[in-house]
Design goal:
single chain; mainly alpha; 11 helices
Length: about 260
């Protein structure tokens, strides 16, 4: 199992797409801190990178890699290896490479320019977002053998969490503005890992005032130690559940 992880990890590190991704993250991060007059503005810029660029690249790269590695996976299946070990090895190898790319590209500038709880929080959240969308990529690729459909599912998943979900929430807030649904919004955020990450970082940046009364509700819940534990627990579930579903499908799938 460790040998498979090493093969996959070092194979991905040689991939030019991952190198370009790391370089772009580095350029965006260093320039954000270098061009802004204070670190808070730079952190908000990197926040947008974490919430949009990192999920998109993670889910697309992982989905395409899995489809392109179909022959390698079939070769592994012909060996006396359990399917569970193969799928877990692929997941660990991919997530390790994506997390390393994020740490090198965005993590180093974060720790240098914001060596406090905010920088560490953004680093942890960025790593979790990378892992979550790799897990969603595994689910997307195992649903169908058609590469174009799998990539389409991956893109639609990103669009839903990055854009459509917020639009649906705003629509509900507008339609039900006469009702006290602010507390219910705390529960609704659990259905989007990007929203969980955004709220947690904004609270650390003390930007909850920008979110109005809802911001006060979020701060009362997610700003507490219990809320912090729950939000990170939910983010971990977003990584575990999609991968576990894909693992069950992979174990029973006729390749």
């Amino acid at each position: 199992m460790n040998r498979i992880i090493k093969i996959i990890f070092f194979d991905i590190l040689k991939n030019k797409t991952l190198l370009v991704y790391t370089l772009i993250l580095g350029l965006l991060s260093w320039s954000s801190f270098g061009l802004e007059d204070n670190s808070s503005k730079g952190l908000l810029t990197i926040l947008n990178v974490i919430l949009f660029t990192v999920p998109l690249v993670s889910i697309l790269f992982a989905t395409i890699y899995l489809y392109n590695s179909s022959e390698f996976i079939e070769l592994l299946l012909s060996q006396p290896l359990k399917r569970t070990k193969i799928w877990i090895s692929l997941f660990i190898g991919l997530t390790s490479a994506m997390v390393l790319a994020f740490i090198v590209g965005a993590g180093i500038p974060l720790l240098l320019f914001s060596p406090d709880s905010i920088g560490i929080m953004m680093l942890i959240v960025g790593c979790l977002i990378s892992i979550i969308f790799v897990a969603l990529a595994f689910l997307s690729s195992i649903i169908t053998r058609d590469k174009s459909k799998g990539i389409g599912i991956a893109i639609m998943s990103w669009l839903y969490f990055a854009l459509l979900f917020d639009g649906m929430v705003l629509f509900l807030l507008f339609q039900l503005s006469e009702y006290p649904i602010e507390k219910a919004m705390v529960g609704i955020t659990a259905f989007s890992p990007i929203d969980l990450a955004r709220i947690q970082i904004l609270l650390q940046l003390d930007q909850s005032a920008m979110m109005g009364y809802s911001g006060a509700i979020f701060k009362d819940f997610f700003g507490t130690s219990l809320g912090l534990v729950i939000s990170f627990g939910l983010l971990c579930l977003w990584a575990i559940v999609p991968f576990f579903i894909s693992l069950l499908k992979f174990k029973n799938k006729d390749l």
